[in-house]
Amino acid sequence: MAIVQKEKLTRDLSISLLLYTLPVLAIYLYFKLSNGVVSESHLTLPSFLEFTKPAFENIRTWGLIVFMLALGIIEFTAGLYDDEWTGEERKIDIICFLVPKLILPPVIAFFSLTILPNLIPNLENSLSWVPFWGGFFLIAVADDLTQYWYHRLHHQVPFLWRFHRTHHSAPYMGVAMLNRQNFIYTVFFSQIYLTATLTFLGLGLPALFVLVIKSIIVLGAHSSVAWDKPFYKYKVLHPIAWVLERLISTPATHHAHHADTSGDGVGHFKGNFGNMFFIWDVIFGTGLITRKFPESYGMKSYKQEEWYAQFLWPIFKSKKEGSALADGVLSIPLKPKPENVTPSPVYEQAQS
C-alpha cells in the first residue's frame, strides 16, 4: 500500500512539474514566433481590458471586504448557518479574519521590499516584457497549483494536519469561516511568497487580476449560497455545469471537502483540494463530483477547542480532554498493538 502511495505521489509530482512549465513554454514559443519582438507588456493592460483596471484595483483594496459582508448578510438573513455561529465559533472566525489582515501585510511587505531586493537585486521587473496573458497564465498556474499541494499535504501528513484542522472544525459553511485557519498555516502560505516574488519580477498587474478572480471563486465556493444549483437543475445548463465543476471550485465540490464524513458518497475531505481551479483534482484523481451537498460539516472528533488553541497551536494548547490540540498528544500516532484499538482522530481525518 505504501509503495502504491509513493508511486502515485511521484507520478503526481512529475505531472506538476510539467504543468508548471506549460506557461513558461507558451511564453517562450510566443517570443520565438514573434521573432523576439515584444508587441505588448504586462506593465500595461491590453486595450480591451483597460476599462476593467479601476474595478479590479478597487475590488482588491476594499471591494472584496464589501462583497464578503454583503454575502454574509444574505447568508444570515436566509438562516443558512442554522444558528450554529455562536460562542467560541464566532470568536474563532472573527479573530482568524482580523488578525492576519493586521499582521500579514507587514510580513509580505518586508519580504517584498527588503528580502527580495537583497536576494535578487538585479532582477526587479526583469519579466516586464512578458505579455499580459502570459503573466496571467503563469501566475494562475504557479499560485493555485502550489496552493493545491500545500492544502493536499496538510490533509495527508498527520503532523501538518493539525495546522489546517481549524479550517475544518467549523460545523457550517459560509463566508464567516472562510479565513478560519491556524495562524502558522496562514503565515507559511507558500503561494503568497511565490506571487510576491513574481510581482517583484514585474508581474504585478496580472497578479492583481489573478488574485481578484481567485478571491471571488474561493468566496463563492465556501459560501452557503449554493449558486451552482441552477446549473444542475435545468437540463439546458448541464453542459455548462459539466465544464464549470471540472474547471473551478464550486459550492457542491468544496462543500463536499468540508463534510464531516466520507461514507455517504457525497463527503470527500480526503480530496477536492482545489482552491481556484478544481482541474488539479481532476488531473491527479483526488476529485469527487456528485452535484450533491453534505448533510453536515466539520469533524466528528471536534471538541470545540478554545479559540487560542485553534488559532495559535502549538504555541498554546487546548485544555479539552481528548483534543488533538491538547498537551502531550503525539504528532504521528503510534501503531496500535491491540486489534480493536482505533487510530486517533487526527490520523483518521488526515489520512482517510
Automatic annotation (TrEMBL):
Superkingdom, natural source: Bacteria
Chief place of localization: membrane
Key words, A-Z: Lipid metabolism, Membrane, Oxidoreductase, Transmembrane, Transmembrane helix
Membrane topology: Multi-pass membrane protein
Pfam assignment, any one: FA_hydroxylase
Transmembrane feature ranges: 12-31, 59-81, 102-120, 183-201
Localization annotation: Endomembrane system
InterPro entries attached to this UniProt entry: Fatty_acid_hydroxylase (IPR006694), Sterol_desaturase/TMEM195 (IPR051689)
Domain Fatty acid hydroxylase residue range list: 137-286
Listed PANTHER family: ALKYLGLYCEROL MONOOXYGENASE, STEROL DESATURASE-RELATED PROTEIN
Name of the protein in its database record: Sterol desaturase
